[in-house]
Specification:
The structure holds 2 protein chains of 2 kinds. Chain A has strands spanning 4-7, 10-13, 19-25, 31-37, 43-50, 56-57, 68-72, 75-80, 89-97, 103-106, 110-114. Chain A is an all-beta fold. Chain B is mostly beta strands. In chain B, 0% of the residues lie in helices and 61% in strands. Chain B has strands at 4-7, 10-14, 19-25, 32-38, 45-51, 56-59, 62-67, 72-77, 86-96, 99-104, 108-113. In chain B, strands 2, 4, 5, 9, 10 and 11 form a 6-stranded mixed beta sheet that branches. A 5-stranded antiparallel beta sheet of chain B has the order 1-3-8-7-6, with no helix packed on it. The A-B interface holds A 30-31, 33, 41-45, 48, 50, 56, 59, 92, 96, 101-109 and B 1, 32, 34, 42-46, 49, 89, 93, 97, 99-107.
Chain lengths: 115, 114
């Protein structure tokens, strides 16, 4: 399985500011995914980041709010823009890895609190 | 799009008993069904998976069954131990635009009582 790291691990931010979350993988992967997990809830896919092309966003998520970069095959960033308390959540990146790449492996997550 | 339902939302069992978690999915094109365990404050970790061409898979105390006709799959944990306490998520994957898109169930909080 891939080794995935995220920075920061947690942050407390003020309303109206933006936070950029970094995701680093120890091997080259084609697809990287960004999820949101609200307290006590399941995982919701925000977008899929493919190197060299625009990210694909799921219904309910827009690029202006969650811009994503994917500059190479081992790195991606997710920015949470113009934050409000409703954005307080855990944000996780994942990659498809393993022999079939069907299996997704998750980073440790970034716990975001917006005051 | 895919819809995955998961039951029960909470489950308490005595140590040594079995636990069963059930999921249904809506998209008949789904072809891969992983199960994840998430301990408090940790990332989801894959514990077992099954593909659409297989009906059952077992790994020590954990087994998963799949009924493609009925579009449901289940996780079975036997001889439960306190360290099995966690939130379990089922998921269904379907190929969408060249990649596997994952839809997660709502989660089951399992408590194993010593």
């Amino acid at each position: 399985s891939a080794v995935i790291s995220q920075k920061p691990s947690r942050d407390i931010c003020q309303r109206g500011t933006s936070l950029t979350i970094q995701c680093q993988v120890d091997s080259q992967v084609t697809m990287m995914f960004w999820y949101r997990q609200q307290p006590g809830q399941s995982l919701t896919l925000i977008a899929t980041a493919n190197q060299g092309s625009e990210a694909t966003y799921e219904s309910g998520f827009v690029i202006d709010k969650f811009p994503i970069s994917r500059p190479n095959l081992t790195f991606s960033t997710l920015t949470v823009s113009n934050m409000s308390p409703e954005d307080s959540s855990i944000y996780l990146c994942s990659v498809g890895a393993g022999s079939s790449t069907d299996t997704q492996y998750f980073g440790p997550g970034t716990r975001l609190t917006v005051l | 799009g895919e819809n995955v339902e998961q039951h029960p939302s909470t489950l308490s069992v005595q140590e040594g008993d079995s636990a069963v978690i059930k999921c249904t999915y809506s998209d008949s094109a789904s072809n891969y069904f992983p199960w994840y365990k998430q301990e408090l404050g940790k990332r989801p970790q894959l514990i077992i998976d099954i593909r659409s061409n297989v009906g059952e898979k077992k790994d020590q105390r954990i087994a998963v069954t799949l009924n493609k006709t009925a579009k449901h799959f289940s996780l079975h944990i036997t001889e439960t131990q306190p360290e099995d306490s966690a939130v379990y998520f089922c998921a269904a994957e379907v190929n969408s635009g060249g990649y596997q898109k994952v839809t997660f169930g709502t989660g089951t909080k399992l408590q194993v009582i010593p």
